[in-house]
User: Fold Peroxidase from Fraxinus pennsylvanica.
Amino acid sequence: MSSRGLFFLVIFSLSALSGFLAENEEPAGLVMNYYKDTCPQAEDIIKEQVKLLYKRHKNTAFSWLRNIFHDCFVESCDASLLLDSTRRVLSEKETDRSFGMRNFRYIETIKEALERECPGVVSCSDILVLSARDGIVSLGGPYIPLKTGRRDGRKSRADILEQYLPDHNESMSVVLERFANIGIDAPGVVALLGAHSVGRTHCVKLVHRLYPEVDPALNPDHVEHILHKCPDAIPDPKAVQYVRNDRGTPMKLDNNYYRNILDNKGLLIVDHQLATDKRTKPFVKKMAKSQDYFFKEFSRAITILSENNPLTGTQGEIRKQCNLSNKNH
Ligand code: HEM
Ligand SMILES: *[C@@H]1O[C@H](CO)[C@@H](O)[C@H](O)[C@H]1NC(C)=O
Ligand SMILES: *[C@@H]1O[C@H](CO)[C@@H](O)[C@H](O)[C@H]1NC(C)=O
Assistant:
């Protein structure tokens, strides 16, 4: 064979091989800018709505960020989180793990804006993922290019949710194992928990560290503040009592979280363990020093999370309304 022929043969087999790999590595169907032909304005509309909502209610961005964890981590990014309870089925939103989640009605605001422009085209699961991406930017975090093309599930996963979402006091071994199951390693877990650099934690999730005795692992300077915010061992369920996750920069997604947890100011047991467990502590220290490193790992982990087991092609449906599957209309 001539060297030219050999050259083409090599190129041909390389491209066949990479085609083969791509087919097996990519989650089938997810691509960049999936709606470029069917609804070219889709991503701009979402961005615009996220910005408008953020202007009115800053905490919507916290919700978009928490949503991507609670939806994508439970088996699939399929917007099952957004479904309301029906007469027979409990919604994921109403389980204990979803305690404190808010702003779901503003997802409908975004969906309505898209339906006006391109009815029946853009899935609620893509809205959930892209609103998280744009919310992260509102909070001063990195811009993370994310793929689209997800379709919406038809059923609630409330019954299996606890097998996936760790509790506030879960051991680091369980936390690391559950994230490893979807391909997120220790630095990825450390970076994702950096989301607790914004938002709040209600006293019901904290009182076990305060009463009857204060957890000696908590920084005494911080205890004073927490006790002030959570004065009752059994918080009044009607009084919305909570502590801000990061007193220093509560509205910014930044690496202050890592300095806090190294300073024993982590609110949840999992936050505290992240800073003390030998498998995660080195990454906590590195992220406390470098915002760039935090953002790099955070972007990588959010990307993996956002591509967890999506419904694509002809699976699932495109919901008309994000809180209801179409058959329930
Ligand atoms: C081990 C894993 C995790 C546990 C056990 C956990 C648990 C919690 C708990 C108990 C709260 C307080 C809820 C309340 O009282 O209102 C909370 C808040 C929050 N979590 Fe997590 N979380 C975890 C991981 C994550 C991840 C991976 C993200 C996002 C990437 C995230 C984003 C948030 C946000 C943004 C808030 C504040 C929400 C608000 O203020 O509305 N969490 N989390
Ligand atoms: C974690 O906290 C819950 C209450 O929120 C409690 O029922 C459970 O026993 C605790 N688990 C561990 C391992 O301490
Ligand atoms: C779903 O959301 C719509 C629009 O926000 C609301 O009017 C409706 O009551 C919700 N449906 C249920 C079953 O809660």
